[in-house]
UniProtKB/TrEMBL annotation:
Pfam families given in the database record: AAA_16, GerE
Coiled coil start-end: none
Protein name: AAA family ATPase
Organism superkingdom: Bacteria
Keyword list, A-Z: ATP-binding, Nucleotide-binding
Keyword Nucleotide-binding: yes
CDD domains for this protein: LuxR_C_like
Entry keyword Nucleotide-binding: yes
Length: 929
């Protein structure tokens, strides 16, 4: 039991309420923040005690620095130690041996947690969470929001400045989005109360004056008081404690040294020897470090140091009471002593099968010979984990760099590798600093090209395509570079040139990357082919777009290795959607997404949501499309892949306009602008068109036209928007015509006609051409032809737009019957799709003229209960209410778990509930059948 905690009544109340909420079925996360020695660990223990009292299972673990290089060790260790014991997480014991990719492990962990929490509430506690390994940190980002509807409470403690570790970044991310508990120093009243409780008597001013030097830090106060008691410098008379004697300790380090000095010489040697270890240790290890052959000789010494309170025993062995105590003892070692002990510790770590980074850490501190071996070990370990944990690999390489001199001949190659790893980890600033520093030195051309490749990847990851393109170009200008490096640079140049609207360079670079990469770097070849697919789609060559994407998919499947990590099925689905081959596009997405999960490629998750949303929008399933795009934004933000959040936000803006929620669209636009202000670039069809759509809906047509003016000038050569959204063509024509820019309206018509000629089998392209011509020329025959083509292409929203324009022409001609037929068809289509903004426009315009009222909802569409839920949300609500976990619901409805999460968040908001328990009760009451 943790006992009473002085001065933390408010923080304890927050945690107790949170645990009471968890017991009632509601999840959540709290980050406890404060400097070392402020009392975070004791607060976590108190929370664990309260959880025990409430029959909430507790999974707790302290993270250690060496966790960083061991995938999932932090979370796995906590869950394996769950109290009461459970077999639900037994599979985590062999997690390192599993061939599945990292993201697949996270999904399996999520499944285990959902099933466990369906039967019992759970508190997950991680102390010193800034040391979490990279996969655990990614899992926490994924699981905290995903499991919010389950009775799972996360309690993570961190120092005030968590640092740039994966765990530190995750904690900062959580603190910005949740409830952080900041622990401050104790005030005077709490300090006096702590002194009284610690000593067992009221204290006078001599004690209070002395502990004032501890700055209100509970640990320092306790250690100081213990030292005073141990050295018999506290005297109690008449129930009052006072300080006596001279040479009193005045700092924490002095306090610890005072306590150590009060121990026997052998006990002191035990403490100093064990201080080189960064994890709990056993008696045998302590004996080895001390040079003893019989661990039993240490029994008396162990009793002595644990009685002193400097060491404590936990389930993993002996450990220093606090990191500050550990550091104070460690600092008392001389250099020669430290080197000798770290050499012994490295041998022990090898024998015990510790992570390579831990062994290397000891070697680095054991002397020059050990440092050289450590550098080789760190580089080898980094290479082994680079594919699955790039941030960890980058940290290992940074350690290696610190261990070698500035003029070491191996340094340039290490810098080059480190820059690439930092880029893969998304740490753009650090990659830029290190790469720029390296480029100022004399590098041979191949090494310089590798550094430039890393910088290009870093800036591409950040969405800063102009800088990425510049670095890629500089790299390609180096002489004698390796062919695999050249292929990767070409692939980056292809994608960045496409993003910067330089289609000619993108096509040429993609073709060259494909040619060289087939022999030397298949992954680069796949990227080159996907860039060519994007270029072909942007230029309206839809068959070529499909051919390149199909070729990339076949190459990735055949080559294996890193090539499938490029996920060409994303672009295959995109090409198939553009050709109205929706069933095949869905098949590609359904095949590719589980494959992506199995490969552990978290970075690709937002893109799967983006292309799913595009397909669902084309099919007129707006509720599902919103859930996919919303889940994509959430995932992109979790992964800090903000460049991928921009097009997803653009999708959500257009969907919000279609659904008639203009305030939401405006809020989404603000978020997108904030991201773009950081330097992220975006294609006009993703960003500018989304904003123009909103402006049009708000009645700001001239502003919308001004925003899209450049598009009209390039529409012939780059009809991407017409390919992505055939129903947008007529809107573009109307926008230009209303601005008095008939030539630009004609340019859109010409672009649509050219697109249709290039793609004679595309009903969407043919429909867009007929629609644009019909709107500009007010030709009912062309509008009827557009309706026919959109029906054949199964594009309900585009068909509704053509019907609306045809109805308007019928109204102008006084043909009430013709207008009514077109109006009814358009209204049925947009109502079925969930395009309520379009529906309201039809009803307030044509509907008023026709004198018709809004149609009644189709019988049985929403059922008899749960008013306000969409057709996509209702089945999710019903299945969750039946006790299914989100993952099971996702399988049942053929959705991704993220999409189910998104639906469930909206369901809770609409129904004004906070837990699955409340949902089950509501469904039982409202839908008894």
């Amino acid at each position: 039991m943790s006992g009473h905690i002085v001065g933390r009544a408010g923080e304890l109340a927050v945690l107790r309420q949170a645990l009471d909420d968890t017991k009632d079925g509601r999840g959540g996360c709290h980050v406890v923040v404060g400097p070392p020695g402020i009392g975070k660990s004791r607060l976590l223990l108190a929370a664990g005690d309260h959880a025990d009292e409430r029959d909430i299972a507790v999974a707790a673990r302290e993270a250690f620095r060496h966790d960083l290089a061991a995938p999932l060790v932090t979370l796995a260790g906590a869950l394996r130690a769950c109290s009461p014991p459970t077999g639900d997480f037994a599979w985590l014991s062999g997690v390192d041996d599993q061939p599945a990719g990292n993201y697949a492990k996270i999904l399996r962990l999520r499944d285990s947690l959902e099933r466990f929490a369906a039967a019992q509430p759970l508190l997950i506690v991680i102390d010193d969470a800034h040391w979490m390994d990279e996969l655990s940190a990614l899992a926490v980002r994924e699981l905290v929001p995903a499991l919010a509807s389950f009775p799972i409470r996360w309690l993570l403690a961190s120092r005030t400045q968590p640092g740039d570790t994966p765990g530190g970044q995750t904690l900062s991310w959580l603190s910005q989005r949740g409830t952080a508990i900041h622990l401050d120093v104790l005030d005077d009243e709490a300090t006096e109360r702590l002194c009284t409780e610690r000593i067992g008597a009221r204290v006078d001013n001599t004690v209070l004056a002395l502990v004032a030097g501890c700055g209100g830090y509970p640990l320092r106060i306790e250690q100081l008081l213990d030292a005073l008691v141990a050295t018999k410098q506290i005297m109690i008379a008449d129930g009052i404690a006072t300080v006596v004697g001279e040479d009193l300790p005045s700092s924490f380090v002095a306090t610890v040294r005072e306590m150590v000095g009060s121990l026997s010489p052998d006990a002191q040697r035990l403490l100093r020897s064990a201080s080189v270890l960064d994890r709990p240790f056993d008696i045998e290890s302590a004996a080895r470090l001390m040079g003893s052959t019989d661990p039993a000789e240490l029994f008396g010494l162990i009793d002595e140091v644990t009685t002193s309170g400097l060491l404590v025993e936990d389930q993993d062995g002996l450990v220093f009471r606090h990191a500050l105590v550990h550091q104070a003892v460690q600092n008392s070692l001389g250099n020669s002593q430290a080197r000798l002990l770290h050499g012994k510790a490295a041998v022990l770590a090898r024998e015990h099968g510790r992570p390579t980074a831990e062994i290397a850490g000891h070697l680095l501190r054991s002397g020059r010979v050990g440092a050289g071996a450590a550098v080789d070990m760190l580089r080898g370990t980094a290479a082994g984990v680079a594919a699955t944990a790039p941030a960890t690999a980058a940290d290992l390489m940074c350690q290696a760099l610190q261990a070698i001199g500035e003029h070491d001949p191996a340094r340039p190659a290490i810098v080059a590798d480190t820059v690439g790893l930092l880029a893969a980890a998304g740490r753009v600033t650090r990659a830029h600093e290190l790469g720029t520093e390296a480029l100022r030195t004399e590098l041979d051309p191949p090494t310089r090209a590798t550094v430039l490749l890393g910088l290009a990847e870093a800036f591409q990851h950040a969405g800063r395509n102009a800088e990425a393109a510049r670095y890629a170009e500089d790299g390609l200008n180096q002489s004698k570079i390796a062919e695999e490096v050249r292929a990767r640079l070409l692939a980056i140049r292809a994608h960045t040139a496409f993003a910067l609207d330089d289609l000619a360079v993108a096509e040429a670079s993609g073709a060259e990357a494909s040619r060289i990469g087939r022999e030397h770097e298949p992954g680069a070849a796949v990227l080159g082919l996907t860039a060519r697919s994007l270029v072909a789609g942007a230029e309206g060559r839809l068959d070529d777009a499909l051919r390149h994407a199909s070729e990339a998919t076949e190459l990735a499947d055949a080559a294996g290795g890193p090539a499938p990590h490029r996920h060409p099925r994303l672009w295959l689905a995109n090409a198939l959607t553009a050709l109205d081959r929706f069933d095949e596009a869905e098949q590609a997405l359904r095949h590719g997404r589980p494959e992506s999960d199995a490969l552990g490629a978290a970075w690709a998750q937002p893109l799967w949501h983006y292309y799913w949303a595009a397909l669902l929008t084309a099919r007129g399933r707006l509720d599902d499309a919103v859930a996919e795009a919303d889940a994509g934004v959430t995932t992109a933000e979790q992964l800090t892949a903000y460049r991928l959040a921009v097009p997803l936000l653009g999708t959500l803006i257009r969907l919000a306009v279609l659904r008639g929620d203009l305030p939401q669209a405006r809020g989404l636009l603000d978020r997108m602008r904030q991201l773009r202000a950081t330097g992220i670039t975006a294609a006009p069809e993703d960003a500018a068109w989304a904003e123009a759509t909103l402006l049009c809906a708000e009645g700001a047509g001239p502003e919308a036209f001004a925003l899209m003016r450049g598009f009209y000038d390039t529409a012939i050569d780059r009809p991407t928007l017409l390919v992505r959204d055939p129903g947008a063509v007529a809107g573009l024509v109307r926008l230009a015509a209303a601005a008095g820019e008939r030539e630009r309206a004609e340019a859109v018509v010409a672009s649509a006609a050219r697109l249709a000629r290039r793609n004679p089998l595309s009903h969407a392209a043919a429909g867009a051409a007929e629609h644009a011509t019909g709107v500009l020329g007010r030709d009912p025959r062309r509008l009827r032809a557009a309706m026919t083509e959109f029906r054949l292409g199964r594009r309900p929203l585009a068909l509704a737009a053509a019907c609306e324009d045809a109805a308007d022409l019928s109204r102008a001609a006084g043909d009430r019957a013709g207008a009514r037929a077109r109006y009814d068809e358009a209204l049925a289509l947009v109502t079925s799709a969930g395009a309520h903004g379009v529906r309201r426009r039809l009803e307030s315009g044509l509907g008023v003229w026709l004198g018709v009222s809004a149609p009644e909802p189709a019988p049985g569409r929403h059922g008899t209960g749960l008013p306000g839920l969409s057709p996509a949300e209702r089945p999710v609500a019903l299945l969750v209410a039946r006790g299914m976990t989100n993952i099971v619901v996702a399988r049942q409805l053929n959705l991704s778990p993220h999409t189910v999460d998104s639906h469930l968040r909206k369901i809770f908001m609409k129904l004004d509930i906070r837990s699955r328990v409340e949902l089950a009760a509501l469904v039982a009451r409202e839908c008894p059948d």
